[in-house]
Amino acid sequence: MAETMQFDLVSPERRLASLQVTSVQIPGADGDMTAMEGHSPTITTLRPGVLSVDGPDGTADYVVTGGFAEIRADGVSVLAERAVPKGDMTQEHLDEMVEEAKSMYSKAKEAFENEPGPVDDAAKLLSDMVAMGEHMGLTAKQ
Amino acid sequence: MANLKDLKNRISSVKSTRKITKAMQMVAAAKLRRAQEAAEMSRPYAERFNAVMAGLAASVGGSDSAPKLLSGTGSDKVNLLVVMTSERGLCGGFNTNIVKKARAHAQELLAAGKEVKILTVGKKGRDQLKRDFGDHLVGHVDMTEVKRLAYSDAQGIAKDVLNRFDGGEFDVATVFYSDFVNVVSQIPRAHQIIPATFEASEDEGASTLFDYEPSEEAILADLLPRGVATAIFSGLLENAASEQGARMSAMDNATRNAGDMIDSLTIQYNRSRQAVITNELIEIISGAEAL
């Protein structure tokens, strides 16, 4: 059996999970990564996506947006601005999040007309949201 | 001598006051427990966040490319004070203490020839600051509608503050709130959020070398605005707990004072009643003797 490590998932409002796991799949800003025991210490920011944990007690999925993950050799802490167990995720949640991303996108477009940076970031956030929804079998309103 | 009927009315009115303060105390106690729980739940996030930020800030802070939110604008001329107070009164010196601290800070800055802008969160603080610093108030966040503090409330305030910062409205931002120590003691505190300060925990962080993905600068740029929201959120939660704690002890005192008052009024009432009876007896006896 694989070695286990400590996994913590906290949002500003509460601690969602704190348990022993064998591997954690993290939706990093530069791509997904899977952390297991003995991973080199890494800090990565998150993109909106599904975080999967695999442990002796089975698997669990969480939908996370914004924040970062801190990987140490002996454990992983994920600090997500918003985190919801995947089972609790509903169409309304997604709509709300997509709506928010959309309004940020349009605001960014107005505010930074000649700078592509923030607009691209907002566009990426929006498409990440939509992709995440599709991945979960929910459709985002266009 | 006060007449009997008046005394009776006074006693019954003080009795109903005592009922109200007693009820308020119990409500505050229940709310305090909830607020304290919420504050405790948010602690792991804030602690880890600050630990990571401290590590990041230490490694990037010295370079020229450090974001403005961390290194500052290079001046400290214009100061923004974010004063967080409650929406309701009847909580002892809670609001006054926060305002007193903010006022002292503002006067100090003004005396040093700096510019002061004040953003208030919560009605009570604004009412008190309006008198002395009416011209300095630049905004107000109304929390009347907020029944249960959520992170999104803090995000809203943070967004407002960050927009002002991006617009070049101020150089330094400080939040004022009350730290909850226990029911009888709440300490007003000032915490500088822009440029950001992080208390580095000595035990770890510095010893581990992390890989950063994407670059350290990019992570820092992404996380600093979140840091502002986190700092405001923990301030709001501490404040909520402090407010209920202050109200609880204020109402406890009020209930006790009402009890004392009822006791002394009851004694006065009984004495006057006795005096009236004695008087009547004297009248009857002296009347009978005259016959």
List the helices and strands and how they pair.
The complex is a heterodimer of chains A (142) and B (291).
Chain A: E1 5-10, E2 15-21, E3 23-28, E4 31-36, E5 42-45, E6 49-55, E7 58-72, E8 75-85, H1 91-111, H2 116-135
Parallel strand pairs in A: 1-8
Antiparallel strand pairs in A: 1-2, 3-4, 3-6, 5-7, 6-7, 7-8
Chain B: H1 4-60, H2 68-71, E1 78-84, H3 94-111, E2 115-121, H4 123-133, E3 137-141, H5 151-166, E4 172-182, E5 185-194, E6 211-213, H6 216-290
Parallel strand pairs in B: 1-2, 1-4, 2-3
Antiparallel strand pairs in B: 4-5
Helix pairs in contact in B: 1-6, 3-4, 5-6
Can you describe this structure?
The complex is a heterodimer of chains A (142) and B (291). Chain A has 142 residues and is α+β, with helices and mostly antiparallel strands. Chain A folds into two domains: 5-87, ATP Synthase, domain 1, CATH 2.60.15; 90-135. Chain A contains two helices and eight strands, in the order ββββββββαα. In chain A, strands 1, 2, 3, 4, 5, 6, 7 and 8 form an eight-stranded mixed β-sheet that branches. In chain A, α1 runs antiparallel to α2. The longest helix of chain A has 21 residues, at 91-111. Chain A is globular. The N and C termini of chain A lie far apart (46 Å). By secondary structure, chain B is α/β, with parallel strands linked by helices. Chain B has one domain (42-251): ATP synthase, F1 complex, gamma subunit (Pyruvate Kinase, Chain: A, domain 1). Helix content of chain B is 62%, strand content 15%. Chain B has helices at 4-60, 68-71, 94-111, 123-133, 151-166, 216-290; strands spanning 78-84, 115-121, 137-141, 172-182, 185-194, 211-213. In chain B, strands 3-2-1-4-5 form a five-stranded mixed β-sheet, with helices on both faces. In chain B, α1 (4-60) packs antiparallel against α6 (216-290) and α5 packs across α6 (216-290). The longest helix of chain B has 75 residues, at 216-290. Classes of the chains: A alpha+beta (142), B alpha/beta (291). Chains A and B meet through β5, β7 and β8 of A and α1, β6 and α6 of B. β5 of chain A pairs parallel with β6 (211-213) of chain B.
